[in-house]
Amino acid sequence: MALEPIDLNDLRKAKMLLENPGIAAKITHMLGMPIEKGFALLPKTWHAKVVEITQAALLKAFRVAVVTLKDVPGQAASNHWHKIAVATAGGLGGFFGLTAIALELPISTTIMLRSIADIARSEGELLGDFAAHIACIEVFALGGPPRRQEGAETGYFATRMALARSIGEAAEYLAQKGLSEEGAPALVRLMIKIAERFSLQVSEKAAAQAIPAIGAAGGALINALFIDHFQEMARGHFIVRRLERKYGREPVRAAYESIPTRGAGPADG
């Protein structure tokens, strides 16, 4: 089934957002210096610690953020206010340094997830549906650095395919048991999968904030860029899901893959 011109234009916009450079490239461009300098300042045990913090932050955010929004499909998202809130949290984190990330990340992640859910709702998702909740948390796995295993697929649909089984199990448990303790194992397994990807981007953010010249003001700017990145991922993701509800997954994927990655932006108007 061929997509209507207006929908194909939306899909071009989605691909432009979803296949754009990752957070590291955006931060490097903003700072005017490579964040590798910041990585050299991180503790040797940093990666293991950030994975642990990220998993906990995702689970806490999931339990708080999505369920607080009411179903008003099509209502415009409040990106600006969410960005201010995350920037404020980043400013506080930058002031206190790396030791504050265990406190700052759950707050920032919850605000970002609420923003993602807001964008989902604006694209017609019904937030009373646990499948929509899962689709919101899935955004944190998108737009990260490509996996470096030789021959491994990268890109938006490859990431969704990699998470498909865990997402299906979590959605089934949640549909049966809600956010009860019995449903937790499947949800935790999904959070671990997503945290594997999201923690790489958290590490890149932390590396930038570790550069001595950054401080509180820089932490606020980096967090504003961080939420902007995931708002873009969310907009692209939920445009695709809206079109999948209309046309089915395979026609949308085929149309998506036929759009050149370069110059795949929205048409004028």
Please tag this protein with its features.
269 residues, mainly alpha, 11 helices, 70% helix, 0% strand
Would you mind describing this structure in some detail?
- With 269 residues, this protein is mainly α.
- It has one domain (5-258).
- It contains 11 helices and no strands.
- Helix 4 (46-64) packs across helix 6 (101-122) and helix 9 (184-210) packs across helix 10.
- The longest helix is centred in the last third of the chain and has 33 residues, at 215-247.
- The protein is globular and about 55 Å long.
List the helices and strands and how they pair.
Layout: H1 5-18, H2 23-31, H3 36-39, H4 46-64, H5 79-96, H6 101-122, H7 130-138, H8 156-177, H9 184-210, H10 215-247, H11 249-258
Helix pairs in contact: 1-10, 2-9, 4-6, 4-9, 5-6, 5-10, 6-7, 6-10, 7-8, 8-9, 9-10, 10-11
Overview in brief:
With 269 residues, the chain is mostly helical.
Runs in which pLDDT lies below 50 for 5 or more consecutive residues are 148-153, 263-269
Round the mean pLDDT to the nearest integer and report it. 79
Total number of distinct structural domains: 1
**Strand portion:** under 5%
